[in-house]
Amino acid sequence: xxxxxxxxxxxxSSKDLDMLDGLLKEWCDSxxxxxxxxxxxxxxxxxxxxxxxxxxxxxxxxxxxATR
Length: 68
What we know:
With 68 residues, the protein is mostly helical. It contains three helices and no strands.
């Protein structure tokens, strides 16, 4: 018998996107990365993934980015 786990993702609002964009730009600036850099693109994907699965506080997301 197989078990399927349904994961609920949060929907992103424009306010959420602004916050995530700001965090990504902050992260890029601190590393002197262009926002189109491959590392920045990967960080953006991770930010959205973390947010969709419930990490929604800027300080928490900043901490997760800092570990990359």
